[in-house]
Design a protein that fits this description.
The chain is mostly helical and 206 residues long. It has 9 helices and no strands. The chain folds into 2 domains: 84 residues, RNA polymerase sigma factor, region 2, helix turn helix motif (Rna Polymerase Sigma Factor, Chain: A); 91 residues, Orthogonal Bundle (Arc Repressor Mutant, subunit A), CATH 1.10.10. Helices cover 66% and strands 0% of the residues. Helix 2 crosses helix 6, helix 4 crosses helix 7 and helix 5 packs across helix 8. The longest helix has 24 residues. The C terminus is likely disordered.
C-alpha cells in the first residue's frame, strides 16, 4: 500500500533516504510544472525546483500535518522560491483585486465525452496543444492559479494559501485567466467563428 505523505515525512525526519527519494518522486513533476509556468524558462525552472526541494527538506521539521496537506506546504515553498527569483529579476507579478464572479469550469474545453472517432480524438489532442500554448501567453499570476486549479485540482482556499493571496483575488485571477484563454483560443480558431466556417472544432467555450 502506498504510504501517506505525512508518513514519508516522519520517516524522512527519522533519517530514511528512501522516504526523501519517494517524496521527490511524487512531487518533482508538479512542483516543476508550477515553477515553469511562473518563470517560463525550463532550465531555470529545473534549478528553482531543486532550490525549492532543498529549502523544503532543510525545514521539514516545521511541517505540521494538522495544518494542511504536505503538497500544499511544498507548493507554497515552490511559489515563494519562484516569486523571489522574479522579484530579483524585476519581473514581479502585478497585484489585482476584484470581486468578479467565477466563470464556467475550464475542464469543459479539454475534452468532449461524446467524441469517439479518431478525428474527434485528434481534435481534442490539437486543442490540448492550443490550450497549452495559450496558457503560456497568460500573465504570470494567471498561469500559476490556472495550473494549481486545473492541473493540481486544488480548491480556491488552498490556492489562496499557497500564493499568499486573498480568496477573492484568486477567484478573480481564475475568472480573468479563463476569459483570456477563451479569447486566445478563439483567435487561434477554436471558438464559434471556426465552427461557423464549417471547420471541425471543439465545442465553444461557455
Amino acid at each position: 500500500m502506498k504510504a501517506a505523505d505525512e508518513q514519508l515525512v516522519q520517516e524522512a525526519l527519522g533519517g530514511s533516504q528512501r522516504a526523501y527519494r519517494e517524496l521527490v518522486h511524487r512531487f518533482e513533476r508538479p512542483v516543476f510544472n508550477l515553477v515553469a509556468r511562473m518563470v517560463r524558462d525550463w532550465a531555470l525552472a529545473e534549478d528553482l525546483t531543486q532550490d525549492a526541494f532543498v529549502k523544503a527538506f532543510s525545514r521539514l521539521d516545521s511541517y505540521q500535518p494538522g495544518q494542511g496537506k504536505f503538497s500544499n506546504w511544498l507548493f507554497k515553498i515552490a511559489h515563494n522560491t519562484a516569486i523571489d527569483h522574479l522579484r530579483r529579476s524585476e519581473l514581479d507579478v502585478v497585484p489585482l483585486d476584484s470581486s468578479e464572479p467565477e466563470s464556467a469550469d475550464l475542464h469543459a474545453i479539454l475534452s468532449n465525452p461524446d467524441a469517439s472517432t479518431p478525428l474527434d480524438h485528434a481534435v481534442r489532442g490539437n486543442l490540448a496543444e492550443a490550450l497549452a500554448a495559450a496558457v503560456e501567453r497568460l500573465r504570470p499570476e494567471y498561469r500559476e492559479v490556472i495550473v494549481l486549479r486545473h492541473q493540481e485540482g486544488l480548491a480556491y482556499e488552498e490556492i489562496a494559501e499557497i500564493a499568499g493571496l486573498p480568496l477573492g483575488t484568486v477567484k478573480t485571477y481564475i475568472h480573468r485567466a479563463r476569459k483570456d484563454l477563451a479569447g486566445l483560443l478563439a483567435h487561434a480558431g477554436w471558438g464559434p467563428a471556426g465552427a461557423a466556417a464549417g471547420e471541425t472544432r471543439a465545442r465553444p467555450l461557455s
